[in-house]
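Protein in question filed below.

…
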Amino acid sequence: MKRALSILMLAALLTGCGSSKAPAPTAAPTETTVAAAPAPAPLEILETVWAAIPEENRFPACGGEMTDTIQEGPGALDPANTDALLYTLLVPEEQVANVREAASLIHMMNTNTFTCGTFRLEGVTDGVFADAMKNRILNNQWMCGFPERVIIASFGDDTVLCAYGKNSALDPFMDQLTKTYSGQMVLLVDEPIE
C-alpha cells in the first residue's frame, strides 16, 4: 500500500512538472550581408587621384577625346572611339567591345612618359581584361622612348585601371591611388617593361 501511494505521489509530481511549458528555443541570429559598394566611375577615379597629387609632382597632362580634350587633367572617353582605345590606351582589339565606359589621363608631351586608362567592363572579368592588357603593353613596339613600368589595378569585378610610363610620373600617381582607394583597389600587375 505504501508503495502504491508513493507511486501515485511521484506520478502527480511528474505530471505537474510536465504541464509547464519549456521556453521556446531562440532563433539563431541571422547574418546580414552588405552588398559591396559599386566601383567608382572611371573618370571619378582619375579625377580624384589627379587632384590629390601635389603640384610639384604633376606633369603637363590631358585626357578625354581628341576633339574635345581636357587640358591639365583627365577626361571621359567614348568607348565608340576605338582608335583611342586601340592606339593610345593599347586596349587589345578583342577587348574593345567589352569596354562600356572609359577615361584617360595622358602626358601631353610624350605618351610613353605616362598614359593611364580606366575602363568599366561588360562581358569579361577584370582578370581576363587585365591579362590581355598586360600582354599587349609588354609586347608593344615602342617608338620615341620606352616606358619603364606597367601597373594594372581592379576596382570590384568590372573596373580596371591600366597605366604605363616612367617611374618619375608613375610613382606619385600610384602613391595617391593607393592612399585614396586602399580598401577598394586590388593591384594586379606592377612590372617593369623590358
